[in-house]
Amino acid sequence: MKVMTILGTRPEGIKMAPLIQCLKREPGVRHVLVNTAQHREMLDHVLDLFGLVPDYDFNIMKSVQTPESVSAEILMRLGPVLDAEKPDVVLVHGDTTTAFVSSYASYLKKIPVGHVEAGLRSGDRYSPFPEEMNRKMIDQLATHHFAVTDANRQNLLAEGIAPEQIIVIGNTVIDALLNTASMPFTPNPVLDVKGKILLVTTHRRENLHKLQGVYEALNLLVQTYPELTVIFPVHKNPLVRSEVHKFLHSHERVLITEPLDYLEFTHLMKRSYLVLTDSGGIQEEAPALNVPVFVARENTERPEGERAGTIKLTGLTKERILFDIKQVLDYPEAYRKMAQAENPYGDGRASERIKNHLVSIYRGEDHRS
User: Fold this and answer.
1) Cα–Cα distance between 164 and 113 in angstroms, integer?
2) Neighbours of 206 (CB within 10 A)
3) How far is it, in rounded angstroms, from Cα 196 to Cα 97?
4) Active site residues
């Protein structure tokens, strides 16, 4: 059996690493790793951490790139690789441009696609943008749908996906997180602060010009709570950085850093008291470490976390963010309720379930090389 995994961004690298390792350990499985390098430096750190070396590296990242340019480059580069390798199945993850275009390229070659993290839906085609439509289109192209939760499975069934094509497996990000959180690590002295850490990330494309309220809320929080330190690894997108420097005030308890590698970020998240983010993956990761998450968005494709009480949507206004975060800072019982809520996103065995499913289908088949 030959399995090809295609990835290109840091989140894909993190979430697919434990699955790739699991497949590579399985006798009779030949694994081929393709890195489009839609992200470069941040993804390279992840691949190094997990000891993964791509068989193909397209190195497409440019200082200024658009979804259109990324799509065209991947489509042109991937076709010949699929022809040469002839995998039995191609695995993609999530909702990136790499994942969507790779699914389409594989479909054109009539190669089955396995979609890891299938069925997530926010219900708004423009939020997150373009990720919401990417994942919907991947699910229409895929043969195997690896859903995180039963709610994701229900989304797929509602869109006409056959029940036998869907398996609920949890999320591979929990596999990666638990592995990484157990690795030995010495904190950077600059970030080894006393008191309560509020870890912040913002990067969503659709939020870029709506972040003033988020940053003004942070300014007020550090003034109000002397025990609170904000640590903010800022995304490399220059538009994000421009908004940060425009609205977030300089303060001794606001530490702005370059993006952290996954090992350091995981251990920082583990030590954090709260997280404020517009990321998707962190909504699943931080609750696995018993850290409450406040989501600076108006909707989420992970409503299971909101129902479970591990996350809370704050929107993007200063007033709403302040009110919601103050509740857990002022009332210990409100904090405990979020921190101790059961995380609905998995038990650390998602990769094994995917591997077993693929082996049961493709073991013994002649791959087309």
Assistant:
1) 15
2) 17
3) 37
4) 95, 117, 131, 203, 205, 235
Domains 2-171+347-362 and 189-339 share a fold: yes
* CA 79 centroid distance within chain: 26
% of the chain surpassing 70 pLDDT: 98
Q: In this structure, which CATH number among 3.40.50.170, 3.40.50.2000, 3.40.50.300, 3.40.190.10 belongs to the domain 2-171+347-362?
A: 3.40.50.2000
Strand partners, 145: 115, 166
Q: What are the DSSP calls for 257-309, one per residue?
A: EPPPPHHHHHHHHHH-SEEEE--STHHHHHHHTT--EEE-SS--S-HHHHHHT
With beta carbons less than 8 A apart as the criterion, state whether 113 and 88 touch.
no
C-alpha span between 194 and 311 (Å, rounded):
24
The two three-digit tokens of residue 311, written as one number: 């996350």
| Predicted confidence (pLDDT) per residue in 274-324, tens digit | 999 998 889 999 999 999 999 999 999 899 999 999 999 999 999 999 999
Its pTM surpasses 0.70: yes
Which tokens go with 349?
Answer: 């065995």
Give whole-number Cα distances, 100 to 87, 132, 366, in Å.
18, 11, 27
Quickly list DSSP for 151-193. HHHHHHHHTT--GGGEEE---HHHHHHHHHHTS-----GGG--
Give the Cα separation of 205 and 114 in Å (integer). Answer: 26
Q: Exposed, middle or buried: residue 255 (CB in 10 Å: 0-12, 13-18, 19+)?
A: middle
Amino acid letter, residue 133: M
DSSP β-ladder status, 89-93 and 2-7: parallel
Distance CA 166, CA 356 (A): 14
Architecture in CATH for domain 189-339 = 3-Layer(aba) Sandwich (3.40)
pLDDT at 365: 58
Domain boundaries, the chain: 2-171+347-362, 189-339
